[in-house]
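Task: sequence design from structure.
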């Protein structure tokens, strides 16, 4: 494919063609169902019985955002700012949730904890995930180490990948072509290419799914400079999932995946050590294999999620650095339900992390945990639990949570009052304990305490409104001075999150949220105090859908390393458009996006290029 193809004309022509081909059919009546959430308790509970305001991204929402990546979709939710999603494709992402950082966010994929023990922040790189392989996403915010362990301090992002269909064989193909340009250079050349192919099915008791995806993006330089070289980004994903139901009581599933990304980057050369157009590059290659047996019995189940991961990373500059890491993760748990009112889970989590520095260094954790949920018939709900973290380096650390809520029926809807007190921990990673720069083997874990209180109203007919206040305190924060050490002073962040979902008019959906985040002491870079997201979607028919998305990001503080002065970055607003047309029901869909419709020029990170108006055109074919 010619990467200089002008896609703007193709996009306009295709939208016109879609409108011409539209079949006028009656819209499907939207059924108002009780939403079910899982992540805050690990049980399927009605939202009204959950003590958290869980964010759920459904398959329908993912399909209405085809052409985006996973970090862009998550970045539109309350309490979350993923810094870097609006800049050049290969830039490192910053996960700023409730005033936290990357180390305080835990990512799960199909129930398995994923991270990178060779990284200083120990996080999982969301750039490795292809959104087209994802079935749904749930996000719980606040301290959640009781159920999920290390790093679950500000958020848990629980990603569930697609499952096989009920047919003997099915296939799906998706392809997207788009531009990748800044506000100053609106050339509309094809520079972004995304492809995904999947084959899956179900043969009696055997299920399978195999998928391959690749993404290539060119056209922009990471450094904002005159005549700078372009920094391309490429990613490959291969996944295989197999399952076999031996009986109604026992099933076994297994998976393997291979993910690789490469991106050219710009570095910080001497003597000024400010971002400049250089020939640096970054590679990240991950191989993962896992197994999950599940035994189901009356009123309960016993399940094991186990995975082994190998990671090879390389940063290429004047100083080439390579890292090799391995991890073994096992989570075994028993779930039991008493009379649909009392839900219990007892589990044991084990992890072994290794990274090659001057020699192979490692640590292990072994955590027993227990959690219980009580759902009464008079409105009271209670979620409580505890975990004992046993770390091979610093010893033991105890965390717990208490999360009561009370639901009151109001006409056909309900009002829910909720509160939470929970603690979490962030273990020092291998780089901080044993790495090349400033290692300190005597580090203690970071401690996080989160208090929440809020209200939620739903009329069960398409309108839901919730608001929440949170207060999060950090102790023993690991900082770097002349080396890594635990801070002696606490840090406190508090804020407000408000969400509304409106589906009162047939075929029209509105979702909006507002977040206020304030650090009471100290400074956090690139964290907006105010942020607003809104989305309006309309089904013109069963075949035609369109949406408009708005995002406002308030002022933030960043550091200008050319002067070593802190600078206030101006607020900005972005508007995106999405349009889809089904030409053949459940077979062929065309879709188009326009991002940053008004071509706003703004700064996300000082010295880095941001994206201006960009357009894309895609098709999704199912067999």
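Answer:
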């Amino acid at each position: 494919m010619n990467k200089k193809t002008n896609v703007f004309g193709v996009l306009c022509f295709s939208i016109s063609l879609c409108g011409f081909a539209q079949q006028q059919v009656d819209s499907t009546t939207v059924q108002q169902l009780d939403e079910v959430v899982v992540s805050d308790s690990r049980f399927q509970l009605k939202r009204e019985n959950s003590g958290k305001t869980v964010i759920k991204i459904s398959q329908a929402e993912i399909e209405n955002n085809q052409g985006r990546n996973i970090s862009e979709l998550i970045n539109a939710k309350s309490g979350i700012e993923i810094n870097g999603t609006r800049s050049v494709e290969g830039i490192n992402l910053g996960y700023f949730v409730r005033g936290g950082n990357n180390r305080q966010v835990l990512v799960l994929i199909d129930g398995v904890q994923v991270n990178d023990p060779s990284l200083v922040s120990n996080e999982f790189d969301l750039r490795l995930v292809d959104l087209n392989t994802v079935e749904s996403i749930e996000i719980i915010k606040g301290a959640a180490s009781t159920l999920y362990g290390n790093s679950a301090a500000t958020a848990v992002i629980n990603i569930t990948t697609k499952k096989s269909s009920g047919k003997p064989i099915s296939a799906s193909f998706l392809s997207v072509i788009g531009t990748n340009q800044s506000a100053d250079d609106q050339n509309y050349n094809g520079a972004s290419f995304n492809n995904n192919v999947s084959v899956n099915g179900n043969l009696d008791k055997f299920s399978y799914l195999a998928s391959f995806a690749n993404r290539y993006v060119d056209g922009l330089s990471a450094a904002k400079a005159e005549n700078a070289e372009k920094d391309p980004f490429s990613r490959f994903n291969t996944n295989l999932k197999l399952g076999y139901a031996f009986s109604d009581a026992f099933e076994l599933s297994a998976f393997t995946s291979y993910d690789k990304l490469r991106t050219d980057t710009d570095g910080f050369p001497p003597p000024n050590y400010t971002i400049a157009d250089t020939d640096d590059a970054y590679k990240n290659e991950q191989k993962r294999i896992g197994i999950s047996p599940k035994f189901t019995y009356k009123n309960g189940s016993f399940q094991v999620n186990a995975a082994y991961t190998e990671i090879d990373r390389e940063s290429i500059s004047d100083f080439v650095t390579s890292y090799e890491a391995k991890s073994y993760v096992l989570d075994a748990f028993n779930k039991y339900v008493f009379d649909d009112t009392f839900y219990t889970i007892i589990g044991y989590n084990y992890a072994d992390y290794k990274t090659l520095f001057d020699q192979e260094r490692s640590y292990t954790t072994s955590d027993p945990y227990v959690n219980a949920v009580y759902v009464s018939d008079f409105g009271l709900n209670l979620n409580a639990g505890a975990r004992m973290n046993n770390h091979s380096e610093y010893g033991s650390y105890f965390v717990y949570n208490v999360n009561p809520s009370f639901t009151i029926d109001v006409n056909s809807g309900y009002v829910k009052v909720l509160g939470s007190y929970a603690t979490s921990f962030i273990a020092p990673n291998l780089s901080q304990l044993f790495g090349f720069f400033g290692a300190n083997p005597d580090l203690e874990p970071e401690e996080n305490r989160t208090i929440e209180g809020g209200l939620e109203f739903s009329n069960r007919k398409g309108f839901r409104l919730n608001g929440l206040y949170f207060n999060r305190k950090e102790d023993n924060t690991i900082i770097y001075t002349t080396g890594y050490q635990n801070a002696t002073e606490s840090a406190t962040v508090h804020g407000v999150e408000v969400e509304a979902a409106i589906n009162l008019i047939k075929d029209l959906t509105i979702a909006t949220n507002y977040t206020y985040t304030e650090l009471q002491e100290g400074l956090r870079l690139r964290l907006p105090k105010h942020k607003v997201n809104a989305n309006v979607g309309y089904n013109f028919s069963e075949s035609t859908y369109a949406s408009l998305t708005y995002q406002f990001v308030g002022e933030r503080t960043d550091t200008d390393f050319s002067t070593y002065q802190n600078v206030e970055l101006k607020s900005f607003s972005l508007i995106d458009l999405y349009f889809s047309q089904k030409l053949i029901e459940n077979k062929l869909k065309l879709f188009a996006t326009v991002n940053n419709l008004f071509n706003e020029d703004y700064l996300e990170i000082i010295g880095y290029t941001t994206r201006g108006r960009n357009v894309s055109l895609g098709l999704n074919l199912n067999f």
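Confidence is low (pLDDT under 50) at residues 1-5, 7-32.
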